[in-house]
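Study this:
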Amino acid sequence: TREEYQEEIKQTLGIRRGGNLSRASLEVLAIAAYQQPVTRAYIDEVRGVDSNYVVTSLVEKGLLEVKGKLDAPGRPSLYGTTADFLRCFGLASLKELPAVDVFLSPEEENETETQAPL
């Protein structure tokens, strides 16, 4: 596509910004993909920081969606990934995600092996 038509194409396709996701967005998507459905509080706990803006942004981008409500005080929303998430990451289903142990360092692998099962 010619660069001179870039703005018209973005407007026609509804693209507001560039296609890159921040590290925080990727962290939230990973947590949701592997543990879904999850609450925002759970995401905050895993990340150790407030994730409200990131979750809202990912919902607006169509990569996360509300899957339901948790039966707990306040009825927090449960989030999960969307079909757009799968398409953007070239996956047919969540079963194609790499195993979690692929991401562990050798120290973390030893730590998980010595922990008692829950």
Q: What stands out?
A: Residues 37 and 101 are 20 Å apart (CA to CA). Helices lie at 6-13, 23-35, 40-47, 52-60, 83-88, 106-114.
